[in-house]
Design goal:
The chain is of the alpha/beta class. It has 10 helices and 10 strands. It has helices spanning 45-51, 75-81, 98-108, 113-126, 142-154, 172-184, 196-202, 220-223, 227-232, 239-242; strands spanning 6-14, 20-29, 34-38, 60-65, 68-69, 82-85, 160-164, 188-192, 205-210, 213-219. A 6-stranded mixed β-sheet has the order 6-7-8-3-9-10, sandwiched between helices. A 4-stranded antiparallel β-sheet has the order 2-1-4-5, covered by helices on one side. The relative contact order is 0.17.
């Protein structure tokens, strides 16, 4: 299962304006792990996620996805292995109907019409949105858009699922549906979020980032119950732990 492994080795990234977003980050995520990435605004979470399938390439250091080292030549192949769900679903939904949005990836993978239809139906049924297949995405609620964006990624059968703030702007019912959906996935999952209760619920492991550096990495129940560590990184205890 080496194709499911993610390995960052001393990765740095500097934006064109000189902002140093990642400063020597190293970690390994193994097959089937669910890993939360947490940190304050500007800590580097989104930048890290955008490296997972080559939207960004490291300034220095090495990223391996399975047996492939990420670079300009390999990122097309790596994008078949890693599915990224952006923070704003509108960044991913651009076709006239939900069906066409979810079919876009499989069609571009060169699949025949029957295979595309099977993958679209399966992905939409997994997220509970098959009845929305003919609707325009811009007519959907926030929770429905989030679910369809996830379906558009899982229709391509990625080995690794990466998500940026998946629970943001969701009502309680939609948030619970998302959590149940994520818990049912067998993929390797990497979730960047401020929703520490969701991370505690969904992810067995948690990585804390501050100013582009990994400051803690361990079991979520230990990391997210360490009030001193969280406060030092401008985070608060999950609400469920505050009530105890």
């Amino acid at each position: 299962m080496s194709h499911h492994i993610v390995k960052f080795e001393n990765v740095t990234f500097i934006y064109p304006d000189g902002t140093s977003a990642l400063k020597g980050i190293s970690f390994t995520i193994n097959h089937g792990e669910s890993v939360g990435v947490v940190g304050a605004n500007g800590s580097g979470k989104t930048t890290l996620l955008m490296h997972l399938n080559g939207y960004l390439l490291p300034t220095s250091g090495t990223i391996k996805i399975g047996d492939l080292i990420l670079n300009k030549k390999t990122r097309i192949e790596i994008r078949k292995k890693v599915g990224v769900v952006f923070q704003n679903p509108d960044d991913q939904l651009f076709m006239p109907t939900v069906y066409e949005d979810v079919a876009f990836g499989p069609i571009n993978m060169g699949l025949d019409e029957h295979s595309v239809d099977f993958k679209v139906r399966n992905a939409l049924e997994i997220v509970g949105c098959y009845d929305l297949k003919n609707k325009p995405p811009h007519h959907l609620s926030g929770g429905q858009k989030r679910a369809v964006a996830i379906a558009s990624v899982i229709s391509m059968d990625p080995d690794i699922l990466a998500m940026d703030e998946p629970s943001s702007n969701l009502d309680p019912k939609s948030r619970r549906a998302l959590i149940n959906l994520l818990k049912s996935f067998k993929h390797t999952k990497i979730i960047a979020s401020h929703d520490l209760d969701m991370i505690l619920d969904v992810c067995e492991r948690c990585i804390v980032i501050k100013d582009g550096v990994v400051v803690a990495d361990g079991p979520s129940n230990i990391i997210l119950s360490d009030q001193k560590l969280l406060e030092e990184n401008n985070l608060e205890l999950p609400l469920i732990l505050q009530r105890r």
